[in-house]
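Sample intake sheet
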Amino acid sequence: MITKLYNDNPNIREVRRIADALRNGEVVILPTDTLYTFACSMEHKRAVETIAQLKGFKLKQAKYSMLCSDLSMASEYVRAMDRDTFALLKHALPGPFTFIMEASGSVPRNYQNQNHSIGIRVPDNAITRAIIEETGLPLIGTSVRPLDDNGDEPEYYTDPELIHDSFGNRVWVVVDGGIADPEPSTVIDCTDGIELVRQGKGIIEI
């Protein structure tokens, strides 16, 4: 199933319907301010396992981001931030950034990286932020970029129609928010100081 939503005015009925599906353990594909993302509720481990299968990852090898509606929601799932880190996130979010933060005890261990960290995203996309807010909890997400038969990652999917052709029968819904930006988010590690890990769409002085 594919449904069209508009970033400037997401249909509230569709937003609520998708949020209900997420709370019930479904996997969906959502637009962000960069790439499309597989997403599910953080409360449903089986849904996260489904995402790992869609990506071609083993569960313990997969790296996820926590998609939040705003910085306030994100702050509930990370360890206390120092002043500089908080100022950086406040300036950059919502935006095309993934901040690697030390996870709090509220984040299930299965979703954390080996060093007990988690990627935090607050995408500058009103559709996805509205769905997260309606769901009431962060979503677990990872970009729509499955491994090929050789274990390599091909180009990102940017066209929602092509995404639907590939995954429409394996997820609850593909939310068509238009053609995605082909560039991924900028990744910044804040677990030990502030370090640029990957330069993507987001530009910021560190």
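Comment: The first helix runs from residue 12 to 23. The chain is about 25% helix and 20% strand.
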